[in-house]
Amino acid sequence: MSDAARAELRQFITAKYPAIELTDDQDIFGLGFVNSLFAMELVMFIEKTFGARIPNDELKLDHFRSVNAMVALVQRLAGPTAQASGV
Predict the structure, then answer these.
(1) Which of 34, 38, 68, 87 has a beta carbon 3.0–4.6 Å from 1's, enabling a disulfide?
(2) Which stretch of DSSP H or E encloses residue 74?
(3) Which residues does 76 contact at the CB level (< 8 Å), separation at least 6?
(4) Helix, strand or coil for residue 60?
(5) Alpha-carbon gap, residue 17 to 30, rounded angstroms
(6) Cα 34 to Cα 56: distance, rounded to the nearest angstrom
(7) Is the pLDDT of residue 83 over 50?
(8) How far, in Å, CA of 1 to CA of 20, rounded?
(9) Domain of 61: which CATH number?
(10) In total, how many domains does the chain have?
(11) pTM (2 d.p.)
(12) CA distance readout (Å), 60 to 3, 40, 76
């Protein structure tokens, strides 16, 4: 499911910012177009889409900087069973 998670995250970001060409390891905050409101939208999107509550200790900017970082977060939140199956 990591490929599916990656695709959904990329689609969400590019729907908000269609003019960007985004790679999975690119720092979306470093690009200068992401603000704190969009960061909260990302949190809500991840929680709703992947059915996982993001605990306060996981609400770190580094976990949302890139598509790869967000996929890793989703995998951590899914737990060891989902990681073993490729979430």
Answers:
(1) 87
(2) helix 67-78
(3) 58, 83
(4) coil
(5) 14
(6) 21
(7) no
(8) 25
(9) 1.10.1200.10
(10) 1
(11) 0.85
(12) 23, 11, 14
